[in-house]
Structures are given as structure tokens and as C-alpha cells.
Design a protein that fits this description.
It holds the Pfam family Amidohydro_1. By secondary structure, the chain is an alpha/beta fold. It folds into two domains: 112 residues, Urease, subunit C, domain 1 (Roll), CATH 2.30.40; 281 residues, Alpha-Beta Barrel (TIM Barrel). The protein has 14 helices and 19 strands. The strands form five sheets. Strands 1, 2, 3, 4, 5, 17, 18 and 19 form an eight-stranded mixed sheet that branches. Helix 4 packs across helix 5.
Length: 411
């Protein structure tokens, strides 16, 4: 709390440009995708004040005195939400595999380097149309909290961030074998828990450090957290009103332990079984598939998850450097994968906006264009219901009523 007060007292240039209280902005467009009701509204005007959507109008009528942004022949959508990012984390294939990169990142990057890398990625994500992200660890020690607060304070541009601080994990984090002298490095990136009491302590520490979510690596290699440890984590987090994201891969045991403990989302779940999906459906646990554009072999589970009625919230899990592409451009390329896996374009749009919005912010709506929701909007020139690739070329971005990108109209 003390830190938040300090931030508020410092200069925050972004705030000065916010929509003034009460001033009306109207965004007009030829089409709007109403993801909640699975329909398209034509010739539409979104009325915005104080960073929030006040109403959706059709036809010619316009409120008196409003600033009108007429985007013309485009489709408006809610701002994209990426629920699995690592903005303060970047690997380079030139350095080798995950393991080699993991060591280099810790020994060569200062906390300030990580934060500045995060600032670049945050700006790139926002400019690509992502107005909200959930950032799940690999940020050093609490550097994600600093980036979130810097964005909230208007110091740097970026999406609204929900952050986890360091991921909780079995001994060794996600490192492979490390010699004894190198093992203290693990704590730079992970909080290793041994036993339910340590698990509780780790959750309390994360929340004290500023975590909005708890990220748990349920399994890494052959090591796996126990049911007792997972139950302690979920119990402690939920008591504080904080949700839990569980990384679970390699078979079914880790995912089953996590869903039985009552986590809120399963990350990856590449080999998830119908048995686990049935528990997830019953407990309304989201699946965050994080499929890369080349993840052919995991495709079938998307179809099974849809059939089981699972809430799918799409996350990019992007963290490798890609020549010629920003982090945001990499993240925006994930959607065709889900159409190829059998989801309808409308379902993919919902899994990129509404469903992640419900997962992250059930009380103050995001990921939907409707009265009372945050004014997070994007516009694309193509028709995303015909070609989901339209999301790769976002021409207009508004976050909380403030225009961030406008490649469509002259000022
Ligand atoms: Zn990840």
C-alpha cells in the first residue's frame, strides 16, 4: 500500500491524456462483434466516458459535444487478452535450448534489464491489440509487479497486467540438473516449496509482494508437487481472494492433482485426459492451451476440451525472440491454430476476449463491448469471422478510453 501511494505521487504523463471525467468519446465503425451474444452489429457507435463504455448505439444519432472517432469500414472487437505471457523474459535460439537460456538470463540480466525488456514487450503487445495480459512468472524477483505498477501509473505504455511474481515449484524450479554451487540461482526465478507449510508461506509471500495470481509449476521433469502441497496453495490463495494458475504437462497426474485441489486454470495440459477435463468442467476450471503455431500433435485435445464444455482462454506463452517480429506480433499469430483445431472463428474470438476476461476480472468486465465494461477496443480491416488472421493486423487500439494506435483516421 505504501508503495502504491509513492507511485501515485510521482509524475505520470499518461494520465494527463486520459479521457477527462464526464467527457464523451464516440467510436463509430461499420461492424462490431458482440462476443457475448455471438452476433455482429452493423453501423455502430460505442459511447465512452471515464474509460468505460456507457452504451452501444446504432444509426445516426450522436450525443451532443462528443469527440467522434469514425473508423469507417472496419470491425470493432474487444481488446485482445493474452492470459499466458512472460513479458520480462526472452530466450534466443542462438544461445541454445531452454536450459542454456535460463542460466544466461539469470546470470547476465540485471533486474533493471528485465524491467526494461518488459517495458518494450508491454508496448509491443499493446500496439498489437492486447489490452490485458496475465503474466505468469520468469520475471526475476517481483520485477513483474514493478512493470504492472509502472503501466498503471502511466510511466510506460502497456496492457493492463495481472502478475504472479515468482512461480512456486518443486525443488529445482524448471532447471535441469544443476551442480550444488549453482543451485542458489533457482531462487532468482522460482520459489521452491517442500511441504504444505512452506507452500502456504510461499503464497502469503507472493501476495505480500504484489501478486494478483499465484503461478504453480505442478511438475517439472519427474518431480511433482503433492496433493497436500497443492491443497495448501489453493486454500491459502483463495482465502486471500487470489486465483491459482497451474502449469501441468507430461501425462495426467500433475493436472489431476491440480484440478482436484481446485486451481482456477490449467496451463498447457498438452496430454490432458478426458477424466481431467470432466473434473474441470464440473469445477469450471479454465484451460489455457498455449499452443504455438506449429503445435500439430496437441491439436486433438482442443476438440475434446470444446466437447467437454471447458472454458478455453488463449495464451501465447511467447518468449523466444523472433526475427522481424515484435512480441505482440508473435502473440497475435496464435489464433489460426485454434481454428485449425476445430474451433469456430466466433469461439476463438470469445477465447481471446470474453472468456479470459471472465477469468481475470469477474467484477469489472473486460473482454466485451457492452455498457459497464472497460473501454478496451481494437479494430481490424478484415472480417475475423471469415479469416481469423485479421487479428494479425490491428489498425486501431483503445485502452480504457484512450486511443493508443490509430492507423485509420487523421487527427
Ligand atoms: Zn509459460
Amino acid at each position: 500500500m505504501a508503495f502504491a501511494c509513492v507511485l501515485a505521487a510521482l509524475p505520470s504523463p499518461g494520465r494527463a491524456q486520459d479521457t477527462a471525467d464526464g467527457a464523451l468519446t464516440v467510436v463509430r465503425a461499420a461492424h462490431l462483434v458482440d462476443v457475448r451474444h455471438r452476433r455482429v452489429i452493423d453501423d455502430v457507435a460505442v459511447v465512452i466516458a471515464g474509460g468505460e463504455i456507457r452504451s452501444i448505439e446504432t444509426g445516426a444519432g450522436m450525443p451532443m459535444g462528443a469527440e467522434v472517432i469514425d473508423l469507417g469500414e472496419v470491425t470493432l472487437l474487444p481488446g485482445l487478452i493474452d492470459v499466458h505471457t512472460h513479458l520480462l523474459h526472452e530466450y534466443d535460439r542462438e544461445h541454445g535450448d531452454d536450459d542454456a537460456n535460463r542460466i544466461l538470463e539469470i546470470v547476465e540480466m540485471r533486474a533493471a534489464d528485465r524491467a526494461l525488456l518488459g517495458a518494450r514487450n508491454a508496448r509491443d503487445m499493446l500496439e498489437a491489440g492486447f489490452t490485458t495480459v496475465r503474466d505468469l512468472g520468469n520475471s526475476g524477483i517481483n520485477n513483474d509487479v514493478a512493470l504492472r505498477d509502472a503501466i498503471d501509473g502511466g510511466w510506460v505504455p502497456g496492457p493492463r497486467m495481472f502478475v504472479s511474481t515468482r512461480a512456486l515449484s518443486p525443488v529445482g524450479g524448471q532447471f535441469q540438473e544443476l551442480v550444488e554451487a549453482a543451485q542458489p540461482l533457482v531462487a532468482r526465478e522460482y520459489v521452491q516449496v517442500d511441504g504444505p507449510e512452506q507452500a502456504r508461506r510461499a503464497v502469503r509471500q507472493a501476495i505480500h509482494d504484489g501478486a494478483d495470481w499465484i503461478k504453480v509449476i505442478v511438475n517439472s521433469d519427474s518431480l511433482m508437487l503433492s496433493p497436500g502441497e497443492m491443497e495448501a496453495i489453493v486454500d491459502e490463495a483463495h482465502r486471500a481472494g487470489v486465483q491459482v494458475a497451474a502449469h501441468a504437462t507430461h501425462g495426467d497426474a500433475a493436472a489431476m492433482i491440480a484440478v482436484q485441489a481446485g486451481v482456477d486454470s490449467i496451463e498447457h495440459g498438452y496430454t490432458i485426459s478426458d477424466d481431467v477435463l470432466a473434473v474441470m468442467a464440473r469445477k469450471h476450471i479454465a484451460l489455457v492451451p498455449t499452443d504455438s503455431p506449429t503445435a500439430e500433435h496437441h491439436r486433438a485435445r482442443i476438440r475434446r476440451a470444446v466437447a467437454a464444455g471447458i472454458r478455453i482462454a488463449i495464451g501465447s506463452d511467447a518468449y523466444y525472440r523472433a526475427d522481424g517480429l515484435t512480441r505482440g506480433q508473435v502473440a497475435a499469430r496464435i489464433y489460426p491454430r485454434y481454428v485449425a483445431a476445430g474451433m469456430s472463428n466466433m469461439d476463438v474470438l470469445r477465447s481471446a476476449t470474453l472468456l479470459p476476461g471472465e477469468l481475470l476480472a469477474p467484477r469489472h468486465p473486460i473482454g466485451t463491448i457492452e455498457a459497464g465494461a472497460r473501454a478496451d477496443l481494437i479494430a481490424v480491416r478484415g472480417d475475423p469471422l471469415e479469416d481469423i488472421g485479421a487479428l494479425e493486423d490491428v489498425a486501431f487500439v483503445m485502452k480504457e478510453g484512450r486511443t493508443v494506435v490509430n492507423r485509420l483516421t487523421r487527427p
